[in-house]
Specification:
Blueprint (H helix, E strand, L loop, with lengths): L1 H4 L20 H56 L1
Length: 82
């Protein structure tokens, strides 16, 4: 199936529909649980990356505000001394 879509096999996560099954098969269930765990890891990584980008953006904005405020004070000080 991975070749059909041109994807590496290690990026295909097996998932099973349990709607009609009445008995458990541990060999198959472990694949579904592993796939779920991988999805949760990827979701957590995405949220961590989003938080880091937002924090970096806020720091840039905050830094720019500090620079502008310092420049405004320097201009005020210079105009007072003239």
């Amino acid at each position: 199936m991975a070749r059909l879509f041109g994807m590496p096999g290690n990026q295909v996560l097996p998932v099973k529909n349990y709607e009609m099954e009445m008995t458990l098969d541990t060999n198959v269930d472990i694949l579904a649980l592993t796939a779920l765990r991988q999805m949760l890891y990827l979701a957590e990584d995405h949220l961590d990356n989003t938080q880091m980008r937002e924090a970096a953006s806020a720091m840039r904005v905050s830094g720019a505000d500090n620079v502008q405020g310092r420049r405004a004070r320097e201009v005020e000080t210079a105009s007072e001394s003239i």
